[in-house]
């Protein structure tokens, strides 16, 4: 009798496995730590996508497995990634907020037969680390380059660049300098600030002394942006007419309320604004706000995750739920769709998104500070990518 | 009491050799158990061993020699970056050679940084060590042409171990290499801490003035110990570089130094197995808790640390020893 | 000349903020011999309370400061009674472990209760906007920070040197057993000093929030900076902490202006140089 029960139980178990597969997606991101907000946005983007599209693709059910990586830590990233592949049996890897973490995960993709969809990490070279890397975010080169054109269009001849002294800051500086000098502008000075700078007054004094008409700045989204923008206003640079130009990391939406009136009128270039006006974005913002709990916490990593889920769903469709990383990646090369951020496509050459970059101005609408899109640079590739 | 008088009839070296053998067997057994029970978490286990080497190294300077430091990641990072740079930029991809380079770089970094850190005592020593690790971190960030800066040093492709065993997805090769390395280091350290040199270090910890009065060179002895500790941590760094294939700035950070100190105090200072148990418990706990609830694990880890201080102020091994002696006295 | 004055003004303001937060730590470390790594966490709690009071409850700035200081003390009193009292006189490493644990827990709770985003404190109109100094303009809240710093230094000096409580405190520090024998209730003296230190941390958190913005990882980000100031100044010395804060503020500000690329190198090299020459801090007592 006992044996019979056991046998039928086993049968029931095995039959359920054959009829509908569960496809696991491993997501590595900063769910705690200083960048916990960005991890929360990964989760919001994923949940929004699941809420809108359901968690089944054909016969297969998607299951998300989260792993926390609070700070850049390649050793831990490699350990988590390996554990996700080997022990959780994930068919897809996704997330990765910081570049070194993505770099550490890339070498094991081929052997694990797993594609990786990067939701954020923004260094151009990541896609070269493995042929199984696809990226649905942006690169710092991509978002910084159009700002050079903006500056020239506005008749600015002399610019000082001020960037945080680390990888993305250096990328941003290089992108702007290349674009701006290429268009006939002059860089009067390039300053790199230590990462943990908290008093920006001396920097502002230096900007003043340089005689530049505008300052191009890069700071990572988060606490430091507050002090920077405040110092810019308090030291009279805004009143003196020194334009502040920056990639959108400086004015990510959750920080805007804290920046307040000081940020009004700031010009930034970026791939996504929460206020983007399109039916796709309205649907996304509604679902993602519900997922994250408070609309004011919504930021750009959510859209990277949302589009990443779309790409993964297409990969699952193409492979019929079978684990075949090469076929999955091949299937999404050249894929194009309308994302909440606008029309996008995956460049088959480097598996990175070609997308619109928008010039935005911080504005106050209905009591909310927003990044208002005022100009579009269509179909921008990644100018920072070099074929390996 | 009775068994002590029994064993003490044997020569001292025999007794200690016997204990060493038992310790090595226990270590090997635990490693084998880890391999069998968690075959899919070998990367985590390898990482734990790399950190263990760092904490063992910290124990040498803090637990055995009384130097307070919150900057010990300096020597770990030196080993990791040296091994990584030689592999990525100069094509030195033999894993054993990379380990040797890491140990050498760690020893040099240890000796150099000790020249600064040993100038202070207590609080000022802590601050000097923080300054040293911060300088090293800044320097690695600045020299991004060599270190990859904040993007991390990638492109490390270790050759098969002994030309035979590839570093595979499951991390078996890396794990076995790590275990052998750990056991070898453990045996060597057991010998060192029992040697007259090791005893001298303990003496310095207890009373540096008296040791100086005896005519022993305090400063030079500590520099030497620092170099040995640096080599151990450097091995850990190189191991991490080989297993991960990427070296990040975190390996040279204040955070890593502080965590190492937390692990050491958690396990119990001044005992080699205390350092290893502290690391195992802390990293394992952190990994499990953050997997179960990635959103609130920091609070739980914090509360755990407070509980340890309140109820096991000598660390986990200290508490276990107290319990053990109490039980024995009762029986 | 104008540049030098300008740097000096920034350095003074920044140094004063460092001083206000660090002086509380100097009290706990110098007088009570506790390496309190959770000090920054108390400053952060003060900042959060002030932010909540001004933004959510619409209270005036002055009331918010008071609420922050008292509220943080209220939170700290049970911590002192049940946790810190257990580590007075314990080895430094044990203190480090305990206070790091407290810091982790406070960060986790802050993240949960207040959310991961930046919080700001609404300033009154008088403290917003620039003030003209003749050679340049400077933010009014920075001048406020300088004023608060001077008042704090003066008041502390008065309390410790001129009041009966100060006498008891100094006696307890010099020889707790002897002071106890002479009728000083050392436990109460310690509890009051701890509350005082925490209150100063909270005050610093609020006054310095414009430079060191309030977010959950505040407690870890600036821990090292505060520790460095106390150590360079000499634990337990008011004048030492003031000189150290101003000196390090000047080094950092000048470095940031002249060679921002190597700003941090200057800072830490200066720390190493000072500590090597004065192992007990600029004005610390030798042990």
UniProtKB/TrEMBL annotation, chain A:
InterPro entries per the UniProt record, alphabetical: BCAA_transport, Leu-bd, Leu_Ile_Val-bd, Peripla_BP_I
Leucine-binding protein domain: residues covered: 22-366
The UniProt keyword set, sorted, is: Amino-acid transport, Signal, Transport
GO biological processes? amino acid transport
Q: Which PANTHER family match?
A: LEUCINE-SPECIFIC-BINDING PROTEIN, PERIPLASMIC BINDING PROTEIN OF ABC TRANSPORTER FOR NATURAL AMINO ACIDS
Q: Which family does it belong to?
A: Belongs to the leucine-binding protein family.
The name on file for this protein is: Amino acid-binding protein
UniProtKB/TrEMBL annotation, chain B:
Provide the Gene Ontology terms for cellular component.
Answer: plasma membrane
Q: Chief subcellular site?
A: membrane
As for membrane topology, the entry says: Multi-pass membrane protein
Localization terms from the record: Cell membrane
Matching entries from CDD domains are given as: TM_PBP1_LivM_like
Bilayer-crossing residues are 21-38, 73-90, 96-118, 174-193, 225-248, 260-285, 297-320
Entry keyword Cell membrane? yes
Entry GO MF terms:
branched-chain amino acid transmembrane transporter activity
Query: Which UniProt key words apply to this protein?
Result: Cell membrane, Membrane, Transmembrane, Transmembrane helix
Q: What is this protein called?
A: Branched-chain amino acid ABC transporter permease
Organism field: Devosia limi DSM 17137
Automatic annotation (TrEMBL), chain C:
- Is Transmembrane found in the keyword set? yes
The organism is Devosia limi DSM 17137
Transmembrane residue ranges: 6-27, 34-53, 59-84, 96-118, 138-160, 188-212, 224-250, 262-282
Can you provide one Gene Ontology molecular function annotated for this UniProt record? transmembrane transporter activity
Instruction: List UniProt keywords, sorted A-Z.
Output: Amino-acid transport, Cell membrane, Membrane, Transmembrane, Transmembrane helix, Transport
Coiled-coil region = none
Task: Look up the record and report any one GO term of the cellular component aspect.
Answer: plasma membrane
**Pfam annotation, one family:** BPD_transp_2
Q: Could you mention a single GO BP entry for this protein?
A: amino acid transport
Bilayer disposition of the protein: Multi-pass membrane protein
Q: Which family does it belong to?
A: Belongs to the binding-protein-dependent transport system permease family. LivHM subfamily.
Q: Which PANTHER family match?
A: ABC TRANSPORTER ATP-BINDING PROTEIN, BRANCHED-CHAIN AMINO ACID TRANSPORT SYSTEM PERMEASE PROTEIN LIVH
Name this protein carries in UniProt: ABC transporter permease
Q: Does the keyword DNA-binding apply?
A: no
The record's InterPro entries line, in alphabetical order, gives:
ABC_transp_permease (IPR001851), BCAA_transport_permease (IPR052157)
Q: Where in the cell is it found?
A: Cell membrane
